[in-house]
Design goal:
By secondary structure, this protein is α+β, with helices and mostly antiparallel strands. It has three domains: 165 residues, no CATH class; 153 residues, no CATH class; 129 residues. It is 51% helix and 15% strand. The chain is built from 18 helices and 13 strands. The strands form three sheets. Strands 6, 7, 8, 9, 10, 11, 12 and 13 form an eight-stranded antiparallel beta sheet that branches. Strands 1-2-3 form a three-stranded antiparallel beta sheet, with helices on one face. A two-stranded antiparallel ribbon has the order 4-5. Strand 7 and strand 8 form a beta hairpin. Helix 7 runs antiparallel to helix 8. The longest helix is centred in the middle third of the chain and has 30 residues. The termini are far apart.
Length: 488
């Protein structure tokens, strides 16, 4: 009999007239109630190639919940749950609460937080229905990872993680006698300026690492405490992998060592393998730990005795919550009236880098920029390059990174080194390709005081401290020629 089963499976009392709860009908009803969340998830994943791995997390959650073979003790408890009432009072109450909260969130929350509430409610139902637990860390992690979260993670966590990776990298490099300083998300060594780009923040590696850890949690049937320990270990291993990658790339980008061009990508592959193996070894370690807490401290959560009358009340509340969740999108809306013409907006500049620019009508590529954008946007050309200028006066999630916008309309992107303009301004760059079209795209954000940022995440964390301001986000796209990236 496995420890996880002994530790977490409840002893449920037999209750008559509980067929509604003991069947899969409650799962089906709740899944249908969250139809708006499923529709949003499908649209986001379908329109973004970066988010399509989310389906792997959802498939893993379905597999482990409905198809993964159980040990004898777990199977016996599952059979008991199907015969009687599989929902403890606490777990069922949480499921109902989060379902009601999901329905109410249509009035104030955007789709992503709503989807988190939906997955949390579904986790409580599936957890007590199929696992005999009030809360299942592995299942919850897989359901959350099934949401299209990479773009949001890059927006909110990209800059902080790059700062952490940068500080750790500087510590290692200074131990080797290199006088390296961090300037924002750049490493300054002598006359060399090395940009800690988005891949060095490790957000994609973070997603994969957490997915692998959650997968192993379900595969090894770890207890909740061991699951949390493994997820924390995975996060630490991922940070180490990113510090290793950034340190190795510093030597290559600073030309301290000569390396072929493919070593940039090869370094990322090595870091990826290091992280994956580290997480697997950590899972093996926590699997073999006999217990985390002493027996006198470890206690099973109290069971909840349901009578026939209270089970009927819970059934009514459950159906009411699901009905509210199903219909909320029709009578509640989080849409706000956004005025694209911001108050006190002066006008777009007439020149760019000393060259006169001509305003053009917005094209398909700008459609993603325009989505609920609380500001002004214009498309221009100087005869050689296409220039997108956006103006905002407040910190907003709707100032999308240019890479997201290009990927949303079918381009594949690849990071390029930092570009230093003729006036010393810094630009983050990437290549974009679709069919026969190949572009080099650079972007920067600046204000009238002379401050500048090379990515949206760094700008956002600065803008949060200012109640109002004025920022220009400039994106320049030009035909990608054979010049060495970073040279003008």
């Amino acid at each position: 009999m496995r420890e996880a089963a002994n530790e977490d499976i409840y002893k449920f009392d037999s209750i008559k007239n509980s067929k509604f709860f003991s069947s899969n009908l409650i799962c089906i009803i709740q899944i249908l109630a969250f139809w708006a969340a499923w529709r949003w998830l499908a649209l986001r994943v379908w329109t973004s190639t970066e988010e399509r791995w989310s389906f792997a997390a959802l498939a893993a959650a379905i597999f482990f919940t409905f198809f993964w073979s159980k040990t004898e003790s777990v199977a016996e408890s599952a059979a008991e749950a199907k015969a009687f009432l599989p929902l403890s009072g606490a777990g069922f109450a949480y499921s109902i609460f989060f379902t009601f909260l999901y329905a109410a969130s249509f009035a104030y929350a955007p789709p992503f937080p709503r989807a988190i509430l939906a997955m949390t409610a579904l986790m409580f139902t599936l957890s007590v229905r199929h696992y005999g637990k009030t809360f299942h860390v592995g299942l919850w992690s897989l359901l959350l990872l099934s949401l299209p979260s990479v773009a949001s993670m890059e927006f909110f966590l990209g800059y902080p993680l790059r700062v952490i990776v940068g500080e750790a990298t500087i510590f290692l490099l200074q131990m080797q006698g290199l006088d390296v300083l961090r300037e924002g998300v750049c490493l300054h060594w002598g006359e060399k300026l090395i940009w800690i780009d988005a891949p060095c923040s490790g957000l994609k590696m973070l997603w994969f690492g957490l997915f692998l850890a959650a997968f192993l949690v379900c595969f090894y049937r770890l207890s909740n405490l061991k699951s949390l320990a493994l997820l924390a270990s995975a996060f630490f291993i991922i940070l180490l992998g990113n510090v290793f990658r950034a340190s190795a790339l510093f030597y290559i980008e600073a030309e301290i060592i000569e390396a072929p061009a493919f070593m940039h990508e090869a370094t990322g592959v090595f870091a990826f393998i290091f992280v994956a193996l580290g997480i697997v070894f950590a899972a093996q370690f926590w699997k073999n730990v006999r217990q985390i807490l002493p027996n006198r401290i470890r206690q099973k959560p109290p069971t909840f005795r349901l009578t026939s009358s209270t089970s009927k009340i819970y059934a009514v509340l459950f159906l009411t919550a699901c009905a509210a969740a199903f219909s909320a999108s029709f009578w509640l809306s989080d849409e706000k009236n956004i005025n694209p013409g911001i108050q006190n907006f002066r006008s777009f500049p007439e020149t760019f880098e000393g060259i006169e620019i001509k305003q053009l009508p917005l094209s398909e590529r700008e459609s993603y920029f325009l989505e609920d954008f609380p500001g002004s946007i214009g498309r221009f050309s100087d005869g050689r390059r296409e220039i997108i200028i956006r103006y905002v006066r407040e910190a907003t999630r709707k100032l999308h990174p240019a890479g997201d916008c290009f990927r949303a309309v079918g381009y594949s992107t690849k990071p390029l080194p930092l570009k230093i303009g003729a006036g010393g301004e810094r630009w983050s760059c990437f290549s974009a390709a679709r069919a026969d079209e190949k572009l080099r795209v650079c972007e920067r954000i600046y204000d009238d005081a002379g401050n500048e940022w090379t990515d949206v995440s760094a700008w956002y964390w600065t803008a949060l401290n200012k109640p109002a301001g004025g920022w220009w986000a400039v994106t320049v796209a030009e035909a990608n020629d054979l010049r060495k990236p970073g040279q003008d």
